[in-house]
C-alpha cells in the first residue's frame, strides 16, 4: 500500500520532476553508464511493440503503460545523487 501511495504522489507531481531530470542528465556526478541505462530503458519502452495488457482494453491498457513508465522514472530517481533529490524535494 505504501508503494502505491508513493507512485500516486509521483504521478501528481510529475511536472516538478522535469527540472530534476534535466539536472540528472547534465550532472557530472552521475556516471555515464547510469545516464545511458536510463535512455536505453526509455527507448526500449517506446520501441517495444508488445504490452502486458493491450491498449485496446481501454483504461487497463493505459494503466499498464503508465505503470511501466513510472517504474522507469523511479529508477532514474534512485540513481540520482542525494543532493539533487534534496534540492527538488524528491
Automatic annotation (TrEMBL):
GO cellular component labels: endomembrane system
Superkingdom of this protein's organism: Bacteria
Primary localisation category: membrane
Cellular location(s): Endomembrane system
Start and end residues of each DUF1232 domain: 37-71
Lipid bilayer topology: Multi-pass membrane protein
Matching Pfam families: DUF1232
Swiss-Prot/TrEMBL keywords: Membrane, Transmembrane, Transmembrane helix
Coiled coil: none
Source organism of the structure: Parageobacillus galactosidasius
Protein name (database record): DUF1232 domain-containing protein
Amino acid at each position: 500500500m505504501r508503494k502505491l501511495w508513493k507512485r500516486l504522489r509521483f504521478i501528481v507531481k510529475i511536472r516538478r520532476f522535469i527540472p530534476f531530470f534535466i539536472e540528472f542528465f547534465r550532472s557530472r556526478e552521475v556516471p555515464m553508464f547510469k545516464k545511458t541505462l536510463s535512455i536505453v530503458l526509455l527507448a526500449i519502452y517506446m520501441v517495444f511493440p508488445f504490452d502486458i495488457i493491450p491498449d485496446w482494453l481501454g483504461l487497463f491498457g493505459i494503466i499498464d503503460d503508465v505503470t511501466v513508465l513510472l517504474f522507469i522514472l523511479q529508477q532514474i530517481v534512485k540513481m540520482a545523487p542525494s543532493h539533487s533529490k534534496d534540492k527538488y524535494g524528491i
